[in-house]
Design brief:
The protein has about 280 residues and is of the alpha/beta class. The chain has helices at about 50, 55-60, 90-100, 115-125, 160-170, 175-190, 195-205, 235-245, 260-265, 265-280, and strands at about 10-15, 20-30, 35-40, 60-65, 110-115, 135, 220-225, 250-255. About 35% of the residues lie in helices and about 20% in strands. An eight-stranded mixed β-sheet has the order 1-2-4-3-5-6-7-8, sandwiched between helices. The longest helix has 15 residues, at about 265-280.
Length: about 280
């Protein structure tokens, strides 16, 4: 294999989020309609490597992804050592809007997975005119807790390995071995307590079952793509969102699990490209 660069450029964006100075790592590739991608809990933008290197996508879309504060290459803000990280709906939405505004994105498509898929619903609900369309990957209006979150941040447990162990069963059984382990590696590298803090939003603060039916797809078209092998956001939960949101379009993706864009990028792109073609 000859040496080559991926077509991805990474830079640090200095901006205020809710009045606090942040240095956020941003990657982008391609040209055309802006496609803003949001990673899962406890991970980072590397999950979108397959999307950000696909020639078909890059000919039509400017793909942008950022590491949320506390994640990946985005450090926590100054004074983090005196706080407990806990993601809220308001804080998460503020991050996405601040990055979009700082980059001067004109009605981008917003796509997120897991916690990103949940905030996509919230963004479509509360700020519908800001987006050309919303794509929810593994999007549900809520999730019932199914394990003890305290295991994710304990001094007697290896934090990275237990985070990866908890999510390992969410990956589809047909995922290529190399992609499966790269997905898990991202979880092994998360900061102490970050995955647990993200799940505060996912399991508690971000429950929008009472409001989900108010999404107006005439203003912000909503596309839902969910893997069939997912017991966190089950296919039934995604289809329930589609049932309650008039005009939403849902597809259950064969052979995929909770991390479709990273666990099996090529299979995922077969489902994503038709959606992007429709939006474009």
């Amino acid at each position: 294999m000859s040496a080559r660069f991926d077509p991805i450029t990474g830079r640090y964006l200095n901006l205020d989020i809710e009045g606090v100075a942040h240095r956020v790592y941003v990657e982008e590739a391609g040209q055309g309609i802006a496609l803003l991608c949001l990673h899962t809990a406890g991970a980072d933008t590397r999950q979108y490597r397959g999307v950000m290197t696909d020639p078909w996508v890059l000919e039509r879309f400017r793909v942008i992804a950022f590491d949320m504060p506390w994640h990946g290459k985005s450090s926590p803000p100054a004074g983090w050592q005196d706080t407990e990280y806990r993601l809220t709906t308001a804080g998460y939405m503020a991050q996405v809007l601040a990055v979009s505004e700082a980059l001067a994105l004109d009605r981008p498509v917003v796509m997120g997975c897991s916690i990103g898929g949940r905030i996509v619903l919230q963004l479509a609900l509360d700020h519908p005119t800001r987006w050309r369309a919303a794509i929810g990957l593994q999007s549900g209006a809520h999730v019932d807790p199914y394990y003890d979150l305290s295991w994710l941040h304990r001094p007697d447990v290896h934090g990275g390995e237990v985070c990866a162990g908890i999510v390992s069963g969410l990956i589809g059984p047909q995922a290529p071995e190399s992609e499966r382990w790269e997905t898990l590696w991202h979880y092994m590298q998360g900061g102490p307590g970050v995955f647990k803090g993200d799940l505060h939003f996912y399991k508690i603060d971000g429950d929008i079952r009472e409001r989900i039916g108010a999404i107006d797809t005439a203003q912000c078209p909503l596309y839902l793509l969910s893997g069939e092998y997912d017991y966190s956001c089950t296919p039934a939960e995604t289809l329930e969102v589609a049932r309650r949101v008039p005009g939403a379009r849902a597809t259950i993706m064969s052979g995929l699990g909770h991390f479709p864009m990273s666990e099996d990028p090529q299979r995922f792109l077969d489902y994503l490209r038709p959606v992007l073609e429709t939006i474009g």
